[in-house]
Amino acid sequence: MISARFTYDGGRFSYRYVVDPARRTVHSTLTWRNKTATRVPEWTSVFFRPGHRAGYRWEMDKLGEWVSPADVAAGGEQYMHGVWSGVRFTASGSGMAAANASAGLWVTSMDAAMACPVLNKVADAALTPESSLARACFKYQIPGPDGHRQRQLTDAMIDGFGITLHTNIMGISGFPQW
Question: Exposed, middle or buried by CB within 10 Å (0-12, 13-18, 19+), for 150?
């Protein structure tokens, strides 16, 4: 078990990792108490980028069904997803990889429901590993072939996923911005 605590301006931030080599699992807990409210745009996300692996792909638990993040209607929100239990990077298709579908990376979130894909150069040639994290969730603007509508997301464009723990910058369509 690894744990740490940080204190800042009267608030407290702590995290704990429990590694179980026998089960090949890592459980982490993040606790943030007395966070100061602010009107400065901010968000905190935890990102997972396992790298490319043949026969594996990202999926999200949407209302109890595992679906591809690319399975979004044209013109729909592709970069912010409400998820039920979390996201996974597991074997897909047929053959040996599909037979071991439980293998891979499973990210389960108890109370943070917003998941965001981290895109790569297939989505936008100007993206770097660092800029893709900085733009994840809120700042991707990738025009489609016609230059106007956003480009439709594909599995090949996804390098990883993030779980957003808190944010105050998500616009709410149809309501005044405070």
Answer: middle
Domain boundaries, given as residue ranges, for the chain: 1-36, 38-167
Q: How far is CA 58 from CA 4, 14, 54, 63, 99, in A?
A: 30, 29, 12, 16, 17
Maximum distance among all Cα pairs of the chain, rounded to whole angstroms: 54
**CA gap 172, 2 in Å, rounded:** 38
Of 172 and 36, the structure prediction assigns the larger pLDDT to 36
Confidence of residue 97 (pLDDT cuts 50, 70, 90): very low
Among 72, 70, 74, 76, which Cα is nearest to 145's? 74
Quick one: average pLDDT of 21-39? 81
Return the bridge partners of 158, or none.
119
Q: Residue 98 corresponds to which amino acid?
A: A
Backbone phi and psi for residue 131, each to the nearest 5 degrees, phi listed first: -70, -30
pLDDT band at 3 (very low <50, low <70, confident <90, very high): low
